[in-house]
Amino acid sequence: MSTRTPLIIVSYHCAPSPAVGAKRFSFLAREFAAQGYDVHVIANELEPSRLGPADTSLPQPGTVHRVAAPIKLPLEGGWFARSVNSLARRLLAPVSLEYFWARAATRRALQVARHLPRGIVIATNPPHAAPIAGARIARRLGWPLVLDYRDPWTANDWPKWRRSATELAVARPIEARLVRQSTARVLNTPAMREFF
Q1: Structural domains in the chain plus CATH codes
Q2: CA-CA distance, 77 to 21, in Å (whole number)?
Q3: pLDDT, tens digit, for every residue of 53-89?
């Protein structure tokens, strides 16, 4: 068993994905490892990205554990898939279309942590499934939780068509519970700091 402090980083996107979240935590994980942490990243399965080709220049962020969502949205196909996607976008707007990934990510992180000493859980947002999974993991393990906000969640007023009063009424208590559970929050802007 390693004597290094473990970090479980819950990041839906991970190198070599070209997504911003993947880039940010590839470099941060490298720095954490250089500081002596035992870094484990729980990430979505590697799949082709609509954001462009894989970015092979990114550093490998510790040990990456990839998991797939049992239900992958949006669905591909004809009118039926479009209808399901439209409904899912409305119903899951408070927690993101990636919501179903949170359960698989939680299960995998608990398997990884089974043989680790007490550590820290960092969950990076968006998508909102990552902090949901991170909070579940931290609660089950009794580890501190750090929420990393690359973008706001309920404080985000864009796009307005996805931020109905009903969606916010559902999302705000979820986010508030996660914030209360967290030991620390990393915020990117002064406006986010004021909101918190």
Answers
A1: 6-195 (3.40.50.2000)
A2: 28
A3: 888 888 887 899 999 999 888 888 899 999 998 998 8
